[in-house]
Amino acid sequence: MQDIIVFLTAIASLTIANATRADEPLTAEEQALLDKGATMEMYEPNEHSRHFISHIEAFADKNRQHTRTLANPEPVLTFVFGMEDAEPAREEGKNMAESHYSPDMAQQFLFAQGWDKYHDRFFTRAYVQEGLDAYHKARRQGE
């Protein structure tokens, strides 16, 4: 039971300031879920960026050895960090490598850009990760 409470608390505590990730307006039902904090975020850089309503029907314990099913799954608004989010970060990382930014400068710049764009910890972190991966790849190719 404690695992369920921790899990639901984590979902409820997620906040998303920039609600329309895929430039689509939210439906009334999606907005209601956002307003009550029932959101979840996914990192899928090879899929399209989007948002949708999903239901979490089961979860794994902290050791991922046992799965538990929820009797009455509640809806959550799911935001996907997809290719439309990842591609600008990759381009920026590549450009910074070509401009000879140091790794620290690249990371700081990507963080500032990601935060300015999303105002969300998860999406900013994903943006930085994609940008730094492209930065390091471009630097290795340039050597």
At a glance:
It is elongated, with a radius of gyration of 18 Å. The chain is α+β, with helices and mostly antiparallel strands and 143 residues long. The protein is 52% helix and 17% strand.
Q: Which descriptors would you attach to this protein?
A:
single chain; 143 residues; alpha+beta; 2 domains; three-stranded mixed beta sheet; two-stranded antiparallel ribbon; 5 helices; elongated; disordered N terminus
Can you give a write-up of this model?
- This protein is of the alpha+beta class.
- A three-stranded mixed β-sheet has the order 1-5-2.
- The longest helix is centred in the last third of the chain and has 22 residues.
- The protein folds into two domains: 80 residues, no CATH class; 59 residues.
- It is built from five helices and five strands.
- β3 and β4 form a beta hairpin.
- The N terminus is likely disordered.
- α4 runs antiparallel to α5.
- Helix content is 52%, strand content 17%.
Spatial strand order of the main sheet? 1-5-2
Beta-strand proportion: 15-25%
**Helical amount among residues, as a percent range?**
40-55%
User: Number of folding domains?
Assistant: 2
What sort of overall outline do the alpha carbons produce when their principal axes are compared? elongated
